[in-house]
């Protein structure tokens, strides 16, 4: 719970020196992963040969690249291209007058209860990330791309974290009060009383009984399925339909899962594809043959990423955070995007064009290039490669009508974010923790302003000092303590509203203050002390609805037909939305453009083909291959357990050293 991971401080210089950064992809394989990699048994099948033989139009990296969109995905893509290719001419087109996309923070001057002056940071977009490696029955490694980016930018010491031992209370508002979800802070008696008495959990026990029977049936019948069966060939269902089928009733779907979908996507639980949500990672192991205890299934791209990411800095940062449940930066994730911008502005081969809204994109057949026109650049400029990180529907709109019909069907939700800061600390207590979400099943009279959820930002940033009762450790950048909340409203509830009916700033602020006061019991006098800020994030969260995989498969073919492999796409419209998937998508497309490379270990030079997403960025949707590989996890779990113990010992030693210093 320390403001900065103390175990990192002792080697801060070693982690971010240029020698480590320049060799971050060239060092020997991390010990934690070495045995896993050496014992990986790849069992994938294709109707068209090995996936590594995927054809590409490039026999060399393109000399000129245009990146459409200056959000996190676009900046990270440009960063890795500029890092690997100092001679490549890279141009970033951004329609607005700022970079960073939906990651946006604002410093606001405030006064405390006694008149003291200070400042607080309001965050409008994503504010934290959750490490994904070694979680659950299936492993994911998008966070390795995040750790790689953090180390290359030299941000390891700024990275804040919450250990997995820290309990952050999570709540759901239903039907007219906050209900705490069971966690480690509750006794067994409290858990039992909550599950038995709260209407939120109506139908829980019969639903779990039905779910258990369904899962057992899947696990036992999976031995009869051929090894070549692809989990994605199953009939695709929405999250609501899938879990209603498994639970045998819709209670938990409407009361709990719909709230979770509001918090992640702002979307409708009955429309979002279950295959494009975190639930699928846990559920899809039943779609494959059962394995002996020593083996597990791993996504093929993740196995390939494990085999590729190298470097002491990235490895040590990942190992330091084996017991971390969340990451953030003191003033917000804008510290990450600001570092990317600072790096790119110093590169002579990178041009940033702000206020340039792309108006058309066409294929110049004679030159075999892509021509770009913008609102400030009517004369077309051609590029060998274009990478679009724009919202998919926007991309379809700038192409000739009918060029990308699959992307024209894309949808996204609009979220209004209202930030509130009250000078009195702890106003949300006794409801301490992460915050609360509101499910679709809440009656209209209890949610007439379409609130999706409220986050308790001050509880995450200010935590009690375990060594000094009554004092707090500041894990953010605020200079004065108060109660800071973020209210999210709109989402799928506003899908069919015309623009003029979406609440304006003053109306949204009034709605947010009323809702928070009703939910948390604030008085009118308390509400009047709030310092507020708001932002409308239009089409900010792409919705991957049922049929997304087939649409992306069709889009892959449409992009190839229209642009001959010269245009690729990346971002939340295609891959799973979120900070970690966005960084992973940027890394994948940059590696695809890079082609192949060499790394040198102690005994040999190995050439690794890095063709991972194809020339369109959508090859994984179209590839006729198994999506999983079987790996021997015995070495991995042993190493992971060993490293976890080391991490805990390091943390305790750091805390003891701090106690002695104090």
UniProtKB/TrEMBL annotation:
E.C. number(s) listed in UniProt: 1.3.3.4
Lineage: Eukaryota, Fungi, Dikarya, Ascomycota, Pezizomycotina
Stated role: Catalyzes the 6-electron oxidation of protoporphyrinogen-IX to form protoporphyrin-IX.
Record flagged with keyword Metal-binding: no
Locations listed in the record: Mitochondrion inner membrane
Keyword Nucleus: no
Pathway: Porphyrin-containing compound metabolism; protoporphyrin-IX biosynthesis; protoporphyrin-IX from protoporphyrinogen-IX: step 1/1
The family this protein is said to belong to: Belongs to the protoporphyrinogen/coproporphyrinogen oxidase family. Protoporphyrinogen oxidase subfamily.
Free-text remark on how the cofactor is bound: Binds 1 FAD per subunit.
Protein name: Protoporphyrinogen oxidase
Keywords: FAD, Flavoprotein, Heme biosynthesis, Oxidoreductase, Porphyrin biosynthesis
Domain Amine oxidase: 72-573
Pfam family membership, one: Amino_oxidase
Cofactor (UniProt): FAD
PANTHER family: PROTOPORPHYRINOGEN OXIDASE (PTHR42923:SF3)
Reaction(s) this enzyme catalyzes, per UniProt: protoporphyrinogen IX + 3 O2 = protoporphyrin IX + 3 H2O2
């Amino acid at each position: 719970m320390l403001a900065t991971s103390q175990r990192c401080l002792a080697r801060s210089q070693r982690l971010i020196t240029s020698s480590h950064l320049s060799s971050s992809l060239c060092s020997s394989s991390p010990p934690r992963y070495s045995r896993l990699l050496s014992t990986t048994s790849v069992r994938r099948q294709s109707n068209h040969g090995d996936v590594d033989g995927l054809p590409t139009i490039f026999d060399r990296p393109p000399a000129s690249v245009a990146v459409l969109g200056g959000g996190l995905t676009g900046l990270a893509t440009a960063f890795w291209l500029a890092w690997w290719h100092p001679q490549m001419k890279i141009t970033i087109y951004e329609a607005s007058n700022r970079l960073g996309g939906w990651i946006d923070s604002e410093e606001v001057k405030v006064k405390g209860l006694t008149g003291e002056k200070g400042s607080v940071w309001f965050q409008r977009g994503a504010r934290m990330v959750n490490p994904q490696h070694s979680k659950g029955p299936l492993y994911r490694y998008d966070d390795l791309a995040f750790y790689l980016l953090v180390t290359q930018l030299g941000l390891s010491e700024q990275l804040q974290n919450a250990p997995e031992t820290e309990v952050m209370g999570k709540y759901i508002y239903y039907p007219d009060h906050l209900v705490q979800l069971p966690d480690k802070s509750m006794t067994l008696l409290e858990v039992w009383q909550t599950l038995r008495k709260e209407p939120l959990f109506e139908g829980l026990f019969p639903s779990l009984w039905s779910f258990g029977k369904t899962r057992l049936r899947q696990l036992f019948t999976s031995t009869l399925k051929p090894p070549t069966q692809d989990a994605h060939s199953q009939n695709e269902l929405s999250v609501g339909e899938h879990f209603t089928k498994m639970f045998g009733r819709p209670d938990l779907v409407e009361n709990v899962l719909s709230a979770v979908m509001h918090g992640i996507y702002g979307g409708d639980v009955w429309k979002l594809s279950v295959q494009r949500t975190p639930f699928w990672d846990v559920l899809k192991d039943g779609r494959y043959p059962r394995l002996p205890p020593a083996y597990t299934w791993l996504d093929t791209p993740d196995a390939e990423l494990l085999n590729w990411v190298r470097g002491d800095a990235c490895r040590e940062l990942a190992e330091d955070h084996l017991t971390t449940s969340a990451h953030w930066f003191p003033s917000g994730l804008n510290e990450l995007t600001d570092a990317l911008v600072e790096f790119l502005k110093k590169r002579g081969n990178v041009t940033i064009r702000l206020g340039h809204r792309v108006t058309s994109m066409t294929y110049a057949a004679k030159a075999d290039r892509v021509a770009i026109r913008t609102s400030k650049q009517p004369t077309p400029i051609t590029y060998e490669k274009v990478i679009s990180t724009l919202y998919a529907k926007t991309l379809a709109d700038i192409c000739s009508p009918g060029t990308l019909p699959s992307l024209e069907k894309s949808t996204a939700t609009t979220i209004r974010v209202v930030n509130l800061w009250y000078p009195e600390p702890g106003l949300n207590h006794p409801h301490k923790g992460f915050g609360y979400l509101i499910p679709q099943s809440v009656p209209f009279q209890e949610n007439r302003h379409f609130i999706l959820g409220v986050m308790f930002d001050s509880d995450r940033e200010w935590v009690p000092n375990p060594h000094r009762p009554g004092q707090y450790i500041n894990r953010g950048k605020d200079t004065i303590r108060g109660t800071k909340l973020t209210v999210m409203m709109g989402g799928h509830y506003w899908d069919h509203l015309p623009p003029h009916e979406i609440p304006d700033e003053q109306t949204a602020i009034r709605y947010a203050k009323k809702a928070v006061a009703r939910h948390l019991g604030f008085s009118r006098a308390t509400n009047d002390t709030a310092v507020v800020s708001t932002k409308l994030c239009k089409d900010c969260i792409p919705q991957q609805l049922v049929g997304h995989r087939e649409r992306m498969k069709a889009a892959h073919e449409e992009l190839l037909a229209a642009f001959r492999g010269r245009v690729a796409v990346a971002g939340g419209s295609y891959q799973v939305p979120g900070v970690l998937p966005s960084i992973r998508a940027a890394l994948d497309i940059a590696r695809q453009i890079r082609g192949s490379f060499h790394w040198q270990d102690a005994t040999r030079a190995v050439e690794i083909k890095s063709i991972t997403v194809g020339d369109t960025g959508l090859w994984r949707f179209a590839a006729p291959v198994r999506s999983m590989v079987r790996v021997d996890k015995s070495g991995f779990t042993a190493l992971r357990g060993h490293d976890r113990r080391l991490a805990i010992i390091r943390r305790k030693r750091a805390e003891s050293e701090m106690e002695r210093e104090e």
